[in-house]
Design a protein that fits this description.
about 350 residues; alpha+beta; Enolase-like, domain 1; 8 strands; flat; disordered N terminus
Length: about 350
């Protein structure tokens, strides 16, 4: 059995417990802020030790053979996370199974039916979501596979495992049994520690990310020009972050992540991407500070800065220090206010 996902010590969402018998499952029973905490805990990636790789596509007629691999987690990893966060009594799932009429399968022209499974997942106090899974009925494990697919898809509606949808596949060499000889190294944002630091993948809806993807795949005869344009695009994005982050944090991240003072000195595109992700994490951190500061009050905010030997937020030059401020402020906001006697 695998260990609790995402390191159980970091999966500390409030336990909502089972709902009272008088309330329907899934009815919102906890404050909005605590719901956000639970969703945030669900979104944390699985520990890399729980990640496996599946070959989705293979080359034909090439030696050595190559395959396109994507990461996935076993169904038990999902249940472990839910149990760690909410206890086994805090969530439930219900399956509905159907079988389609038989029809001709396009890949081999055989007549077969499909097993169709719907999974309704309920986390008490958070809500319910349902999703479907399917598998050909002539597969010995059709029902098991369809159930697992439906369950994982329902979990992703609550944020659990959703980060895995950002992967589009990486090509690697295969052995004679079409198994990967090696697997890619997960990016920082796809690990619990990187995610909790604020690292995130570039979303497909991000126009800058789309620009980088389009330029990076320039095609035949354009590789060098495309790579150069890609570096220039990321460089501009880094330079634009100075005004957003302030000089201290901007310079601090350049030094800690890339070991440079000037972003133009970064030659490796992978390091440029890493710098962008850290700077985006810092930007989100500053926004969280502003939101929590308004709720905690200026006196509490000033006290937290003094405890860290800082006189203002402009002196912060690392993600670690920023995270300490965010955690202290949000803890202060979460503390119950004293009642008047």
């Amino acid at each position: 059995m695998s260990a609790p996902n995402g390191h159980a010590q970091k999966d500390r969402a409030p336990e909502s417990g089972a709902p009272p018998a008088t309330l329907a499952p899934g009815v919102l029973q906890v404050p909005e802020e605590r719901v956000k905490e639970m969703v945030a805990a669900l979104e944390v990636p699985f520990d890399p030790s729980q990640i496996e790789w599946r070959v989705m596509n293979t080359t034909k007629g090439l030696q050595p053979p190559r395959g396109q691999v994507v990461p996935y987690a076993d169904q038990r990893a999902y249940t472990d996370r839910l149990n760690a966060l909410f206890t086994p009594a805090g969530w439930t799932r219900k399956y509905t199974i159907h079988t389609s009429a038989s029809f001709e399968r396009s890949k081999d022209q055989k007549i077969a039916a499909k097993v169709l499974v719907t999974c309704e997942l309920t986390v008490f106090g958070l809500g319910s979501h349902s999703a479907t899974g399917e598998e050909w009925a002539d597969d010995d494990n059709a029902c098991t596979s369809a159930e697992a697919q439906a369950f994982k898809r329902a979990c992703s509606c609550l944020g659990l495992g959703r980060y895995l949808y950002y992967f589009t596949g990486t090509w690697v060499d295969l052995d004679d049994r079409k198994r990967p000889k090696s697997v890619p190294q997960l990016s920082g944002w796809a690990t619990p520690s990187g995610w909790l630091e604020g690292l995130r993948p570039h979303c497909a809806s991000d126009p800058k990310a789309s620009e980088r993807t389009a330029v990076g795949n320039g095609g035949n005869g354009q590789h060098n020009g495309g790579a150069s344009a890609l570096r220039d695009s990321i460089l501009r994005e880094i330079e634009q972050m100075e005004q957003t982050l302030g000089k201290r944090m901007y310079r601090g991240l350049l030094k800690s992540v890339a070991r440079v003072w000037n972003p133009k000195d970064i030659q490796d595109p992978a390091i440029q991407e890493r710098v962008v992700m850290h700077m985006q994490a810092a930007e989100r951190g500053f926004r969280r500070v502003e939101a929590a500061r308004d709720k905690a009050g200026l006196a509490a905010y000033a006290g937290i800065l003094r405890s860290l030997k800082l006189s203002s937020l402009e002196q912060v030059d690392s993600l670690k220090a920023l995270q300490e401020i965010v955690a202290a402020l949000e803890d202060r906001v979460a503390q119950p206010k004293p009642t008047k006697s």
